[in-house]
Amino acid sequence: GDGCGHTLLTPHSGTLSSKNYPGTYPNHTACRWRLRAPPGTSLLLAFGDVDLEPSERCTRSSVLLADPQAGTAYGPYCRNAVPATPLLVTNSSSVTVLFNSSSHRSGRGLLLSYATSQHPGRGDCPLETPLPGLPGVCFSVYCPAGCKDIEGDIWGNPSQGYRDTSVLCKAAVHAGVVADELGGQVSLSREKGITLYESAFANGLHSKRGSLSEKRLLFHRGIFSCHLPLPACDDTLEVAAFNASSWWHEVDVLGEDQAWVAERAALDSAGHSWAADPSSEAAWLELDLGTRRNVTGIITKGSSNHHDYYVRSYRVSFSRDGKNWKPYRGSSGQEDKVFEGNSDSHGEVFNAFIPPIAARYIR
């Protein structure tokens, strides 16, 4: 319907909003979402925002939830008839959400997320507030699918952590601990804040540069205990050998030859990087890790050595023997995943592999 805004629905969780959210929702629109959970589970709905222009019995604009299995309905809701609690626990695996608007002047509209009874943690990715507790306290929360594009800011990056005023589940996507298209359980701890949070572009999201905060959020991969050391999941893997489809032999202004060979692709190499021959098509760079390893992500950077070179987007394939290759398709498993790369030759861009890749060769 023409009243539908950001929508991402999966069998276990999702996020939806009215059109233009958080700007004013349009006049004379309607939208209908059908939420379905696996049989034997029930839906938990979290109202992130219900800001519809008030009217008697919510006749101008309304949100109505229908539970066909139980034969019950919730609402209608608007600004003068809001839900009694931000979290609605149903006894049904199927709920229909109806949004309607007529002529009105103001209102942000609707923002709603949901999860199944298998994941009873927080489903309110749009409504994150500073978490309660003391420094070092551990949390495990469930982030619904679709939090990447909700309204709200994040400050920080995967390595140093995030300012505690950041939208929690959006920061989890940026950190690469959960895939936005699926959602999932997130483990994090709340630690002492730092003076400055550096911005970064990671997993398709820009974070902001933030000032001092009293607390910060640190995300962790896998299940961990506050009383045990965190597993070393983010160590840089050693590359035994580099290979490439081609490389560029540059003749510089002094007439000297510079070879932009595959070995120059190591991230910390001084000077110029690897570059394919300018006439080549479908260029590739191959990394031999020496043995089969668990690869959780990749960092790319351009070459600012005399040339403003960088890669805007790329695909990844992997192999156990260097002969038979499989394309990486991410958590959806339907199409080859295209990673968003760099927008300049200076900054580093991190992309997570969710699920990780188990292979010796990466291309």
TrEMBL record:
Its predominant location is membrane
In terms of CDD domains, this protein maps to:
CUB (cd00041), FA58C (cd00057)
Tell me what topology the record assigns in the membrane.
Single-pass type I membrane protein
SUPFAM superfamilies, per the entry: Galactose-binding domain-like, LCCL domain, Spermadhesin, CUB domain
Task: State the compartments where it is located.
Answer: Membrane
Task: Give start and end of each LCCL domain.
Answer: 141-217
Which pairs are disulfide-linked?
C4-C31
GO cellular component terms listed in the entry, alphabetical order: plasma membrane
Give the matching PROSITE patterns.
CUB (PS01180), FA58C_1 (PS01285), FA58C_3 (PS50022), LCCL (PS50820)
Which protein, by its recorded name, is this?
Answer: DCBD1 protein
| Encoding gene per record | Dcbld1_0
